[in-house]
Structure formats: structure tokens, C-alpha cells
Amino acid sequence: MAAVAVAVDTAAADGMDGVEVRGRSPGQEVLLTPAALAFLADLQRRFEPARQQRLADRRRRQAAFDAGALPDFRTDTADIRAADWQVAPLPAALLDRRVEITGPTDPKMVINALNSGASCYMADFEDSTSPTWDNLVAGQRALAQAVAGTLDWMAPDGSKHYVLKPFAQQAVLLVRPRGWHLVEKHVLVDGRPLAAGLFDLGLFAFHNARALAAKDRGPYFYLPKLQTMEEAALWDAVLAQIEAVLGLAHGQLKVTVLIETLPAAFEMDEILHALKDRIVGLNCGRWDYIFSCIKTLRAHPDKVLPERGQVTMTQPFLKAYAELLIRTCHRRRAHAMGGMAAQIPIAGDAAANDAALQRVREDKLREVRVGFDGTWVAHPALIPLARAVFDADMPGPHQQHVARSDVQVARADLLRTPHGSITRAGFDNNVEVCVRYLAAWLDGNGCVPIHWLMEDAATAEIARAQLWQWLHFGDRGAAPLQLDDGTPIDFVLFERALIGLPGKLGGRVRVPGADKLDAAIALLERLTRSATLEEFLTLPAYDLLD
Ligand SMILES: CC(=O)SCCNC(=O)CCNC(=O)[C@H](O)C(C)(C)COP(=O)(O)OP(=O)(O)OC[C@H]1O[C@@H](n2cnc3c(N)ncnc32)[C@H](O)[C@@H]1OP(=O)(O)O
Ligand SMILES: O=CC(=O)O
Ligand SMILES: [Mg+2]
């Protein structure tokens, strides 16, 4: 079977030499002790060369797609897909994951999420966190205090004191570090920024792993935005190193991997295999997946998706991706986790609220009936609804026995482009979402409601990538795209949508990050006018943060 080798720099130094902390935030000295920094620096020195190789592999792969190639199942790993093997047994705390709440890591959110009644809580440093230094330090402190059982929080006006429920009544904690593409510029090792994922995961593990292991709670992680088994193998090597340094058993650290890139959909078995001693499931990260489909196939004129609102999970290419994930996971005795419906409760409008909840209910019903073992919710008020749907259709703790061997997904199924349209409302909405989300993110808020939908980095990326793709469609000689009413999609249309926005938002809507609107507009203009599609909006946006 194809083995995945991770090149490791074994000459990694220990100690504080060459480590510089540039951020200043209250309480950071408790986290960034000399021992913690030495631990992080060691991880960075060992694994940074391999991370850089994986990022270079991504660029090479994308260049091939841009030159006309399409993703496919690998021939060099056919034996991994064909062979019979299973992942390591799942820990008891992760057997029943029917409802998982996700959210950023500020202390109030952490307490609300752990107390929410969900089976699990994914504390998120990725899609829903704007990685200001203050957010990261406060988030790591809140999580460490939560693990220690000492976290509390007082509302600034003194109206409510938030305390944790007893441990046995709390949701099981999982932590999602940032992806391989991001760096943490506030910690330099040998003059270069630390890999953000190593900072988030490493720092959490350093301070909490032993305490969580003693309670038989992992630690557990969600790994975002992977593309290949080699990237999975890199995480596996990092986790094995952390276990060795912290004196934990091999396989103590457990992970769930988000399948949220198009290349990864072709390597689900391989990713499970690369992490088989510690992986407990795959998750359908639908929003990044849609974004990745747009990004990966950006140079293929026959692969343009309709406007965001029309790209739902019932579209055949997304149905195929979800069903392949379930079949693959259950064959390997791993959980198949569903994703996030974007609707959130609507205050002050009962009819609209009922309609939103009905959309969520339908989404969860579809998930449990196709064979998912659990699902995500964005908001605590959605937990009872999701739980009721899963309880009714999933009497046991999971449904790994649902083999879905009826599912046959071919390359063409994953690449089938849905029909649909681009309306003016859809175009304008993409512009508005990008501007409002970027403004909030630059202001330190990584997840906001916009028109009663949860918007985070993944959902905003769809809007941003679509605008770029639609506006640059004619660059390769094709006729420009048109709206469904025949209006050409060009920069005149884009500027028109942008021009009225600050007045409209300032006058009518409470906008988080209102004083960042100009910066957000300037960034969107830059991203959209660029001749090439920026890989992630959070890369240039991070330069503007802090
Ligand atoms: C594509 C993906 O990656 S999905 C995963 C990433 N995205 C997420 O995790 C979404 C997280 N969700 C959120 O951040 C929020 O629900 C939002 C921004 C969508 C809406 O937030 P708000 O407008 O503040 O919601 P609302 O005012 O209704 O909140 C009511 C209460 O629920 C709490 N709450 C809302 N969402 C969450 C959550 N996800 N976790 C914990 N508590 C929450 C609020 O803190 C508030 O608490 P309080 O009554 O004690 O003050
Ligand atoms: O992380 C989840 C997604 O949908 O993206
Ligand atoms: Mg995502």
C-alpha cells in the first residue's frame, strides 16, 4: 500500500532562542510561557518545511487544473481504496455526536456552547474567528479555563453572570485550528511567522492535553481545508510528535477531518488511511466545499455555478459528495458528520422564523435519512430541532451500520455542474455579503448574521469567488456572462452594486464593523479586479488586521 512519508527536520532545536512574540494581549503570559513557546518553536522547526512543500503541491495542482485538467481519483492509491481496513476504535465520548454546535471562542460563546445541550461543541479558530491577537489569546484562555472548569464571564453591564454547567452535562469539546495556508504573524520563529494551525492546535494541546486525557476526552480536533492524504499525513506526524512530547499514548489525540475541498473529495479513503490511528470521522463542510469547487475549476468555462442561493445540498454534485462521504466513512467504521444549514432564528417575525426553522429541519432530515451520524448547528436555538430530527430517525448513537453500498459515485458525478441562473439580486447580494463580512472580520468578528443567514469565512468566500469568476469570465476570450435579464456582468454592474452600499448600510442596517466599510470595499475591489483569483480572502485581509 502507498505509504505517505513526511519529511521531518530532526535537528529541531529546543529552547527560546529565535522565538519572538510580537502581540500584546491581557493574560498572554499565562499561555505563552517559555515552555509553551519552546514547544511551539520545536513543532515549527520540525514541520514548517513539510508545510511549505504541501502548499507548493497545492499551487502545482491548481496550475494543472487551470491548464485544463480535472480532479480525479488517484491511480497510485487504488490499493488503499480497494483494501479492507478500518480506523482505530472510536472513543466513548465521540460515539454519539448527533448534534454539534460550532462557534467562535470568546468566553461567553464558549460557556453558552458547552452549556447548550448539544452533544459536542466545536470551538472554532477557523471559519468563524477573525484571528486578531486579542481573539486568539482570549479564545485559548477561555478554552483552557473551560477545561479546568474555572471559566466564567460577567456581561459588561453586570446583567448576567455566565458559569459552566457540571462537566458531565457539558457538550464534548473539539477544537478547530486554522488551516495549513495561514500563519500567525504575532509569533516568529527564526524570524518567520509560525504556522497558524500549529499555534492553535499546539498551544491548546500543550495546556490542556493531559487534563483532557485524564478525563478520557482526547483532546479532540477538527482539521479544516485539507486537500490530500499527504496533508493529512502531515497532521498525523504533528499529532504523533505532540503525543510523544507530552507523554500521551499514541492515538490519544483524535481528529475529525472536514472534507471541504474538491481535491479532498477524491481522497476520502486516503485521508482516513493516513490518519487511521486517530481519525474518528469526516465532515461535509459544505460551504468551503462549494467555494473550493468554484476556485478549483475557475478556468473551466463549463463549470460556472449559479448564484449562491441556488447551490443547495440537493444539487446532484453535492448529493454525490455527501453520499460518497457516508459510504466511505461507514466502510471504515468512522462517523460521517453532516454540515451547517445557514439559517438562524429570526427575532420579531414569527412567519419568517418558522420558514427559516423549516429549512433547517428539512436539511437535518435529509442528512439523517441519507445516513449521516450527526449534524452541525450554528445557534443554540436550533439544537432541539436538530436533536428531534436525529432522535426520530437514528435510535442508536450513530448509524455506521448504514453501509450505503448502493452509492456509486464516479468522477463525473462530483464534477457535474448544476443548472441555474445569476439574478441581479444574487449578484448584489454577493457584493453586500462580501463587504459586510469583510468589514466585520476586519473589526475582529468572524461570524455575523446577514439577512438572517449565518455568514462566516467559508460562506463569504463563495460570494467573493463567484464575483471574481463571473466578472473575469470573458478574460479568456469567451463572451461575458449575463444576468438572467440579459444585463452583462461587468465592472459597471459591480461598481453600481458597490456605490450605494455604504449609504444603504449606514442608514438602514446595524452593521458590525461599520467603520471598516471603506477598508472592506477597497479590499473587495482589489480582490475582484485582480487578474488572478486570490487563494483565500483571509490572506490579504490578515495583512490589514491588528
Ligand atoms: C461554514 C462553517 O464553517 S460553519 C462553522 C462556523 N460558523 C459558526 O460556528 C456559526 C456560529 N454562530 C454564531 O456565531 C452566531 O450564532 C451568529 C453570529 C450566526 C448569530 O449570532 P447572534 O446574532 O449573536 O445570535 P443571537 O443574538 O440570536 O444569540 C442569542 C444567544 O445565543 C448565543 N449564541 C448564538 N450562537 C451561538 C453559538 N454558535 N454558540 C454559543 N452561543 C451562541 C449568543 O451568544 C446569545 O447568548 P446570550 O443570550 O447569552 O447573549
Ligand atoms: O467548515 C465548514 C464549511 O461548511 O465550510
Ligand atoms: Mg469550512
TrEMBL record:
GO terms, molecular function: malate synthase activity
The Malate synthase TIM barrel domain, residue ranges: 172-416
First-level EC class: transferase
Pfam family for this entry, one: MS_TIM-barrel
Key words of the record: Acyltransferase, Glyoxylate bypass, Transferase, Tricarboxylic acid cycle
GO cellular component, one term: cytoplasm
Domain Malate synthase N-terminal: from-to ranges: 19-78
Catalytic activity as recorded in UniProt: glyoxylate + acetyl-CoA + H2O = (S)-malate + CoA + H(+)
Enzyme Commission number: 2.3.3.9
Presence of keyword ATP-binding: no
GO biological process terms held by the UniProt record: glyoxylate cycle; tricarboxylic acid cycle
Classification via NCBIfam families: malate_syn_A
Name of the protein in its database record: malate synthase
Organism: Cognatiluteimonas weifangensis
